[in-house]
Amino acid sequence: MIRGEHNRGLLCAASAFLALMWLAIPVKAQEQTVYTVKELRTGAMASAIDHEGNVWFGTREGVLVWRKQSQSWQKYTTKDGLSDNYVTSVAVGAGNVVWFGTKHGLAEFDGSSWTTYSASGTNYGLAANHINTVVVDKQNNVWCGTENAGVSMYDGKKWRNFTSEDGLTDNSVRAMVIDSKDNLWFGTRKGLSRYDGKEWVTYTLKESLSVDNMIFSIVSKDDYLLFGTGGGVSKLDIETQEWTRFDKLEGVTVISIAVKGQDIWFGTSGKGIYQYVFKDNKWENYTKEDGLGNNVVTSVSIANPDKKVWFGTYTGGIGYLEKNDSS
């Protein structure tokens, strides 16, 4: 059953406009509705929301941004200055500058112009061009987790690289986050590393990780961390260093996580989106049957103040969950 259709505009970088249709399909509990952009079926690998509320998606065909003020889509590709159209990660830094990790280097967009960085040539210094994840710390240092070459850090002037020889668990870095105490956490194929700026600490399944060593996503929230792995989700209390797990997600590959208040959304590989509703201590699951474009959910981001939960899927495009007015 289709709840309704609404036309939107897709504003491309070349100023060409395309008509889009939004499909609204009721979910089981009737409390939230899944909206999917019917004509945007490109795979969305990562997402982030900037300081103005614009939602940025890294896709396999460039960058798409939902402009909050104009309520329209804008697209950027290598023709505009992006280093590569396969965008694996998105991060927002100071001054609302947006950083994009790609399979062929790093790109910086300040709202009007692009700057690219690579392992060789102009603006070189990256350990490798294939970037899996990007984060920006409080000092506006840009950290890039690469495929098989460790981590590269750019302070705006020079680069510094870290590998397993320095303390990383593995050189294939899939996820990164900065916690409430300004520690950096690196998720790899073989476990987890923490770096406080001086020392490295390793966590593996054998020592402390409660689920799986293959880490795909990390989220920091107040005094705890969540780790999406190939076998479920591990939770670490930063103060007590106590590990727990979510039994509901045992055996599920979790590749993206987002937190709003005490509620948590988990994007999975093949099982859609799981939502843990804290106040009711219950779980909701949204799949293609509820309107998702695809059950492999590669990114989840939560917008404020409208509270939309935006998601990107591997082959089914982009959409969002929105709370119904009557609920």
Describe the protein's architecture and organization.
The structure is a single chain. The protein has strands at residues 4-12, 17-26, 32-37, 44-49, 55-59, 62-67, 72-76, 87-92, 98-102, 105-109, 114-117, 131-136, 142-146, 151-154, 159-162, 173-178, 184-188, 191-195, 200-203, 215-221, 224-229, 232-237, 243-245, 254-260, 263-268, 273-277, 282-286, 297-302, 309-313, 318-323. The chain is mainly β. The chain has two domains: 4-162 and 253-323, Beta Barrel (Thrombin, subunit H), CATH 2.40.10.500; 172-248. The chain has a ten-stranded mixed sheet with strand order 4-5-6-7-1-2-3-30-29-28, with no helix packed on it. The relative contact order is 0.13. Residues 1-30 have low confidence and may be disordered.
